[in-house]
Amino acid sequence: MSQLKIALLSVSMLLWGVQASTLAVAADEHDRGGAEPRQEARAPAARPAPRQGVGRPALDGRGQVLDSRYNHGRYYPPMGTVRSSLPDDHRPYFRGGSRYYFSGGIWYAPRGPGFVVVRPPVGLVISGLPPYYSTVWLGGVPYYYADNVYYSWQPDQNGYAVVDPPDNADAPSPPPDSAPDDLMIYPKNGQTKEQQAADQFECHNWAKGQTGFDPTQSGGATSGNADAARNNYNRAISACLQGRGYQVN
Fold first, then answer.
1. Residue ranges of the domains in the chain?
2. Which of 124, 191, 195 has its CA nearest to residue 164?
3. Residue 107's pLDDT is what?
4. Which of 21, 40, 107, 205 lies deepest, with the highest CB count within 10 Å?
5. Quick count: other Cβ atoms within 10 Å of Cβ 240?
6. What's the CA gap between 110 and 209, in Å, rounded?
């Protein structure tokens, strides 16, 4: 009889231990389940990226600065930014015994084991403009602008030179209408109206210098055969514009 009581007592204690363990686990899970929502409620909300006014943000996701002058609307790394390697499409240039690299409108110079974003020196001549640039007319002369750098066409060097910002840089003017009236000019490469006006102006000046004929002046400002001089001028300006990607009829 005593052995039976001892066995029953042992079973009761075993069942009580299982039940207590189950209740403890349930209570622990309940506590964790209640704590997690409270922890999430205390987490700070994400803040939106800062913007300037209602326009485009001053910085993009890579820390590049918006150049909004003349509605340029492109992002560039700040001056002094250092990178470990050059872009694959960079082009080397020399000026004053120093080497510079050009890519996408951005200028680099060697610095230690890497390359730093710099402003190019005045007088450096490049063969082609950046892929994105703005044409701005200042005092009746076209300038080409990108990343706070001004370029000007140099016919004698067959390229575009880096120049100082013009004195009237804050007062751009509309492009002049200097194209001859008897030529029909069509942009084949999607050139903007501003770019077409700039190209026509430069080709006009070049053709005028080659032939001595100026269609904007009375009689072409020539003392010889005006009709022959006009034909020569038209052929010269047509060749110049065709070389810049226009169809001329």
1. 1-42, 65-163, 185-248
2. 124
3. 97
4. 107
5. 20
6. 41
**11 Cβ contact partners less than 8 Å away, ≥ 6 residues apart:** none
Q: How far apart are the first and last CA of the chain?
A: 125
For the residues of 12-37, what is the DSSP string, one character each? HHHHHHHHHHHHHHHHHHHHHHHHHH
Cβ contacts of 117 within 8 Å, gap of 6 or more: 76, 77, 78, 79, 80, 81, 82, 83, 106, 107, 108
Could you report the per-residue pLDDT of 172-221, keeping only the tens digit for each? 887 766 555 567 888 888 888 888 888 888 888 888 888 888 777 766 66
pTM: 0.59
Determine the Cα angle at 75 with ends 136 and 199, to 5°: 25
- pLDDT for 210 equals 86
Q: Name the stretches of the chain with pLDDT < 70.
A: 1-56, 176-182, 218-223
Asked if 98 contacts 108 with a C-beta cutoff of 8 angstroms, the reply is: no
* Largest CA-CA distance found in the chain, in angstroms, rounded: 145
Distance from C-alpha of 202 to C-alpha of 184, rounded to nearest angstrom: 17
Cα separation, 141 vs 24, in Å, equals 86
DSSP-derived 3-state class of residue 44: coil
Q: Are 122 and 162 in contact (CB under 8 A)?
A: yes
- Checking phi first, is residue 245 left (phi over 0); if not, alpha (psi -120 to 50) or beta? left
The answer for residues whose C-beta is within 8 angstroms of residue 12's C-beta and 6 or more apart is none
Question: How far, in Å, CA of 207 to CA of 224, rounded?
Answer: 17
